[in-house]
Amino acid sequence: MDYKIGLLGRIILLAVSLFVLAYCILSSAGVFLIALFIIVVLAQVVFLIGYSENSFKKVRQFLNNIKQDNYSNVYPVKFDGTETDDLHIEFNAILAKLKEDQAEKEANYQYFRSVFQHLSIGLITFNEEGKIQIVNTAAKRMLNISNLANISEVEKINKELHHAIHSLRTGGSELIKIAHPDGIMQLSVYVIELVMRESKFKLVSLQNIQSELEEKEMEAWQNLIKVLTHEIMNSIAPISSLAATVKSDMESKINSASQLDAHDLEDYLMALSTIEKRSEGMIKFVSDFRSLAHIPAPKFQAIQLHSLFEHLEVLLQHQFDQHQIQFRKKIEPEDLILFGDQSLIEQVLINLIQNAIQAVEDSVTRVIWLEAFIDESGKIIIEVADSGKGIDEEALPKIFIPFFTTKKKGSGIGLSLSKQIMRRHKGNIQVRSELGSGTVFKLIFNG
What we know:
447 residues
């Protein structure tokens, strides 16, 4: 029976009962009759309330099912065209859709969890209290653990790793060496800070780059050996050749008991002079190599970049004037402070500016830019740019290799030394160049 008809019928029946009860009271009917109709009226009121609440009870039950994620209930449908039947059909449709959405979410969750667990990169997520939310198989294997409940437990495994995880901010990365039963591992630690439903948590990725580092190290050694062999052979070959020539000539003079004339002495003197110069060149080469291998540990202090840039301009002003170079500097913000070793950073900047001066010597427009700013990830950046001819594409990947140089005069250790100094500051140096458009060297300080 339709809900409206049932409700209307009960209201009419109650109204009739009230009318009869009022008539009995006004006509002074008997007490028994009046009491009977009062009981009938009260019973009808109770039944009316019960009938009204029956529909609300179904709605409450439906809402409770949704609240408790219980979508298995099915409301009976008689297909009799009543509003209750229509309500049950709607309830069942909504529950079926919610059940389908829940199944899809669960499938997606299991899919991503499976992907998360099978990634070769170690991943750990934890909240502000340090409670671990997810730790995948790769992370457990790298840390040699079976389980991890709180991020503080990492301190027992490796203190440097524990410090890096807590100190790094979004976009920050650090290389950590960690002992493992399979051998020493070099872990690249990368951190992202996230907010979800007003709760902060960190996502830490761990990547073992030991094999890549070993490969790069071998490649670097091979390149270094090539350069060293080239430089040593360039110096040794003429020394060996001249020594052999002088020895042969002197032996022939001794065997023939000939007297040395002034011309012979001049030849010997020239040969000895050449041997001396080449030997001095070898000594300088070894001295440069020694300076490259012994960089002092940085003494960190606050560096006012404005004062540093002013000092560099005064120091190099004579060269700027001599080569008619425009020197432009910019700092944003003006009071930007960098923590580092001032003498070492100054050495890097002088080397880069000297390179820029040589790069613009043959240019029509001779401009050098020195800029400092904070990038979008909060890192301090110093850039040295020039309007020179640029660096050849083939030479660009080799410019940081020790003793490699594209200049006619140069030891080839300046940029390599600069890169090592930046690594000592936990920073990096990058270069971009385009032939005919100039070169930009970028010093990145991670802070």
